[in-house]
Amino acid sequence: MLKKVNKKSLQCLTDNEILSKWKSKAFSALALKDMARYEIRAKIDKSFIIGDEHRELLEEFLNYLEQNKYIDDDKLTENFIKHAIERLKGENYIRSKLEIRGLESNVIDKHISINLDADVAQGIIEKLWKVKFANTDNAENLEDTYIEPSDDYDGYSKNNNYNLKAKKHSKQIRFFLSRGFTYEQVYEFFRKQKKQKKQN
Q1: 140 near 171, Cβ under 8 Å?
Q2: Tens of pLDDT along the chain (200 residues)?
Q3: Are 131 and 172 in contact (CB under 8 A)?
């Protein structure tokens, strides 16, 4: 059963009194962890009855927090992505988690392009494969695991229907997808591995 939250009224309070209450709520939350502008707004909305007459004041308060670096969506996004990379997570995982926290897609895109380019993603997938599959007693043959696009595959467009098929061992493919990697990143990894194996 969800706990009912009794919102506090702001009636009969001056703007300074309102701001004092909002500061107390925001700083208490920020003392525990970094938060996005969206998250602070949501926390204040959850705690206070905010009418239309106070919406502009709330946005000004959030601007104050940003200007004084109490909240920094840009830095929060960068730090989250770097931490996720350390945990060997992929792009889809990162996007999902940041979107839930209300981060703007253009900010997410910028930091993914800087910190998680194609080479970094391929390096993470390779590291995961070696840890998860290469050294186990029942390690699956990498060549058999190679996946090919269907006949209507036309590139790496996000809107494309990949319909990727696996010759064998779809377990590995599902594993990488569950870690947040895209179909095209997984396909590219196995394609390059098979090419290297042929060259050797």
Answers
A1: yes
A2: 445 557 888 888 999 999 999 999 999 999 999 999 999 999 999 999 999 999 999 999 999 999 999 999 999 999 999 999 999 999 999 999 999 999 999 999 999 999 999 999 999 999 999 888 876 544 445 545 444 544 444 444 444 444 444 444 578 888 999 999 998 998 888 888 777 766 66
A3: no
Is 103:190 a contact under the CB 8 Å cutoff? no
170/145 Cα distance (integer angstroms): 7
Within the chain, residue ranges assigned H as helices are 15-30, 37-47, 55-67, 73-86, 91-100, 105-115, 118-129, 142-145, 170-178, 183-199
